[in-house]
Amino acid sequence: MNNWKGWILLVFLAFTFSCSQDRVYEEFYAFQTLEWNEKDTVAFDLKDLQENRGKKLIGVRFNDEYPFSNCYIRVISRDTTGKILDNKLINVPLFDSKSGKPKGGGFGNTFTFYDTLPFELPEQTKEVVLLQYMRQENLPGLEAVGLKILK
To answer: What is the pTM of this model?
Structure first.
């Protein structure tokens, strides 16, 4: 009986300490049709965020139906008036260029890959908008995109 209590305590402690407390913001936008249409604008509201000085990550959740090795995403930052502060195109590699294996973690045929934004968002940023820039109307196999800001 005591042995079981010890195991339960160990599992509880492992679960408690494995939870990440280092993120300031994390939000994902899921595509209902499991594809990202070129007209779909994904916006993340950062108005309630006190500071955004930490590391910024873009997350892409995809499955094995995604037909490309990467995804070009336009990242637009805006202030509270809607004025564009920054507008950059980034390349997010989703598959390893040599082995062809999916990057990121996952289970089954779904994977989530986080990539660091290669630039800083202006301090006045209150909204981040993501647009797919793959020159294809619909991108099958893209399930969701997200934004994560760490402390």
So the answer is: 0.82
How many C-beta atoms surround the C-beta of residue 15 within 10 A? 9
Res 123: pLDDT? 87
Residue 124 within a domain: yes
Could you give the CA distance from residue 54 to residue 120 in angstroms, rounded to a whole number? Answer: 9
CATH code of 136's domain: 2.60.290
* Percent of the chain topping pLDDT 90: 71
Question: Residue 146 is encoded by which pair of tokens?
Answer: 């997200």
17-65, pLDDT tens digit by residue?
Answer: 445 568 899 999 999 999 999 999 999 999 988 877 889 999 999 999 9
pLDDT value at position 8? 52
**Which residues, 6 or more positions from 26, have their beta carbon under 8 angstroms from its beta carbon?**
146, 147, 148, 149
How many residues would you count in the chain? 151
Does residue 12 fall inside a structural domain? no
Do the domain assignments include residue 130? yes
Structural domain tally of the chain? 1
Q: 73, 59, 79: which is closest to 122 by C-alpha?
A: 79
Residue 5 within a domain: no
